[in-house]
């Protein structure tokens, strides 16, 4: 027995037990090696006139034998001499394929795709086999040799006599695995089952360029005997047929004109186990220092677990048509976690097991390019297929908003334009840009209301007050909306009509336009404001003055009302500058400071409730008849009645905002007292 070169026992143990995390990939490695062997022969045929081959017969064969408990992977490639067996299999981590690629770099083209590069994939066979034999015959040689090892100490190399049944009649190699005995923790018999082998081939080696064939057991109905009577029952028999398991040609490498939408849809549904057609299909082909192909899909519907912690994002990553990772998370940002697809590149830097990637600039460059492509496709859908985009946004918009919040607003320029919100005035979804383009002259902010129900939001006094001023309000009903807007702070609207500082400048511009000049436009930064915040500054000077005078004249009343509610409940009670008519609501609750009412509600309702309080302000409508009742109770010195009225006004305002009252029982009792 010959000993492995290098510190073989330790290194071989590392190869078998440490490098690979999933033992089933042994078949991927052996099929890839077989593909390399055929590629080497094919390249030789291109450069050597004496090496003529029949391309139609080039194939890889997988043969399970349940009785002998062996699995054989055969190819009709270039084969190996005894010296090459010694060099390639007797030296750990020596890659014959990588050496071949280096020696023939100037001769390879698209027709040849050598996969191997580390020289360790072959040894993955010992994860499932207690003995491995390689029977091989080099192209152009009559000599056939057998390499055998148990993967522990060493190996033997011997010539195979011509009269031995194992002797190969043609060039190529047979890799014969004698499977390990079954144990409690592992059953190796599964690698002898047709179903398992077909599944592994299709999962990892479906796009190897040569046919991967296997004898498949099928069933057929026997012919009816001529003398069979009327009571004859059909009989069935099993038979075997050589079947090509892999599809060979990746759909993402075909020209778009050669693939129908139906074929893309079928590939998507079968590959990603979805019942519905994708909403969008698009491809990406990069050339230059980093070459790769990508076929990407936007699903038609969100998976049920998209927003659960168990959901795994990622694209399928192939290298030279061989599956490396089923979900490569590094190719997508979190906010595009819904995108599905495949990326194939021979240039990515893999680790030695080919199961994971090295973190390199190549990977980052691919991620940035894919992100830009997805953004571009979403923008196109938004602008040209609004109905489809609305459906997409209802499924996946939450993730885009969370992307802005999670990045502390750093991604607002990339994602802000993709957001949709319900317009209270237009009664449809609009983008922030569309909201800005429809603003009346003089509007300086985007106004929104956040809650859990669109119809309730539209009825809120604070929303009605803003609409009454002629300004639209975005009705936001997802819990992430308020946090998204807080992270954005503002939005830069593009190409808005220029706002002139005075009438003279406006008149001059109008005259220029009348003479044929193009209307002047400008980019404008608009602040995002919650209508429940205390700093909207929408009141006219007259309304502000009236509110200030009423507040000053009723200082004692408001102090008594604040005292009745308690210091911890509201920071102040004041006259509302937004509720100014007798038919407006009698009161509303607003918030000062960075924590809005909606943020408080969301945080307090989370799985780990946070004790975060907004600085609440009770605003009273001085024009409402109720205000006169409050004044009368104060003037009469009836503290109990004032406290009752104040409590009811405050709780009513909370309910209108969609916030819970602190003590529902007390609220019900107060209503009864008022009715008594």
Describe it for me?
The chain is an alpha+beta fold. The chain has four domains: 2-217, Heat Shock Protein 90; 251-387, Ribosomal Protein S5, domain 2 (2-Layer Sandwich), CATH 3.30.230; 420-530, Rossmann fold, CATH 3.40.50.11260; 541-675, Up-down Bundle (Four Helix Bundle (Hemerythrin (Met), subunit A)). It contains 20 helices and 23 strands. The strands form four sheets. A nine-stranded mixed beta sheet has the order 1-6-5-4-7-3-2-8-9, covered by helices on one side. A six-stranded mixed beta sheet has the order 16-15-18-17-20-19. A five-stranded mixed beta sheet has the order 10-11-14-12-13, with helices on both faces. β5 and β6 form a beta hairpin. α16 packs across α19 (639-657) and α19 packs across α20 (664-675). It is elongated and about 120 Å long. The N and C termini lie far apart (105 Å). This is Chaperone protein HtpG. Residues 1-354 are annotated as: A. Residues 506-550 are annotated as: Disordered. Residues 541-550 have a biased composition (Basic and acidic residues). Belongs to the heat shock protein 90 family.
């Amino acid at each position: 027995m010959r000993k492995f070169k290098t510190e073989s026992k330790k290194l071989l143990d590392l190869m078998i037990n440490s490098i690979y995390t999933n033992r089933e990939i042994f078949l991927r490695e052996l099929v890839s090696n077989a593909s390399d062997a055929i590629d080497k022969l094919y390249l030789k045929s291109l450069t050597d006139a004496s090496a003529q081959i029949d391309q139609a017969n080039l194939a890889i064969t997988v043969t399970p034998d349940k009785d002998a408990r062996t699995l054989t992977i055969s190819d009709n490639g270039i084969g190996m001499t005894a010296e090459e067996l010694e060099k390639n299999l007797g030296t750990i981590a020596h890659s014959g394929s990588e050496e071949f690629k280096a020696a023939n770099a100037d001769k390879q083209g698209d027709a040849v795709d050598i996969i191997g590069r580390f020289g360790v994939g072959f040894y993955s066979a010992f994860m499932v086999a207690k003995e491995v034999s390689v029977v091989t015959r080099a192209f152009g040689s009559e000599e056939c040799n057998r390499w055998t090892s148990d993967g522990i100490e060493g190996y033997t190399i011997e010539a195979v006599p011509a009269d031995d049944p194992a002797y190969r009649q043609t060039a190529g190699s047979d890799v014969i695995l004698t499977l390990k005995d079954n144990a409690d923790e592992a059953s190796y018999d599964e690698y002898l089952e047709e179903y398992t082998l077909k599944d592994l081939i299709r999962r990892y080696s479906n796009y190897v360029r040569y046919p991967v064939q296997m004898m498949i057991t099928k069933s057929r109905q026997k012919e009816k005997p001529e003398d069979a009577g009327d009571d004859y029952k059909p009989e069935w028999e099993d038979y075997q047929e050589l079947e090509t398991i892999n599809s060979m040609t990746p759909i993402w490498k075909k020209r778009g004109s050669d693939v129908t939408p139906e074929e893309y849809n079928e590939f998507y549904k079968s590959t990603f186990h979805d019942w519905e057609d994708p909403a969008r299909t698009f491809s990406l082909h990069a050339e230059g220092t980093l070459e790769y192909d990508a076929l990407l899909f936007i699903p038609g519907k969100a998976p049920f677990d998209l927003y659960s912690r168990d959901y795994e994002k990622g694209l399928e990553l192939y290298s030279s048509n061989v599956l490396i990772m089923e979900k490569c998370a590094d190719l997508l940002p979190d906010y595009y976690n819904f995108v599905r697809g495949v990326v194939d590149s021979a240039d990515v830097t893999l680790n030695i097991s080919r199961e994971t990637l090295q973190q390199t600039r190549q990977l980052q460059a691919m991620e940035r390019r894919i992100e830009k492509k997805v953004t571009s496709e979403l923008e196109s859908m938004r602008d040209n297929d609004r109905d489809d985009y609305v459906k997409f946004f209802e499924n996946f918009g939450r993730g885009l908003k969370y992307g802005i919040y999670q990045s502390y607003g750093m991604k607002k320029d990339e994602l802000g334009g993709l957001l949709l919100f319900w317009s209270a005035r237009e009664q449809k979804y609009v983008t922030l840009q569309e909201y800005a383009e429809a603003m009346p002259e003089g509007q300086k902010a985007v106004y929104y209301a956040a809650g859990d129900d669109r119809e309730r939001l539209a009825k809120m006094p604070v929303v009605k007050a803003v609409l009454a001023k002629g300004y639209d309000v975005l009705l936001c009903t997802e819990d992430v909306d308020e946090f998204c807007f807080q992270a954005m702070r503002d939005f830069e609207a593009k190409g808005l009509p220029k706002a002139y500082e005075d009438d003279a400048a406006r008149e001059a511009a109008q005259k220029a336009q009348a003479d044929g000049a193009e209307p002047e436009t400008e980019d404008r930064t608009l602040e995002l404001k919650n209508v429940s915040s205390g700093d909207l500054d929408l009141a006219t000077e007259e309304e502000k003055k009236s509110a200030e005078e009423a507040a000053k004249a009723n200082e004692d009343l408001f102090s008594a009302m604040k005292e009745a509610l308690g210091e911890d409940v509201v920071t102040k009670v004041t006259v509302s500058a937004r509720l100014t008519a007798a038919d407006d609501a009698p009161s509303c609750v607003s918030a000062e400071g960075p924590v809005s009412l909606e943020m408080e509600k969301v945080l307090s309702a989370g799985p780990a409730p946070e004790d975060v309080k907004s600085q609440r302000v009770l605003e009273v409508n001085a024009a409402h008849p109720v205000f006169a009742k409050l004044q009368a109770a104060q003037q009469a010195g009836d503290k109990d009645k004032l406290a009752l009225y104040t409590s009811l006004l405050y709780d009513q305002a909370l309910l209108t905002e969609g916030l819970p009252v602190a003590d529902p029982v007390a609220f019900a009792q107060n209503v009864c007292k008022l009715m008594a």
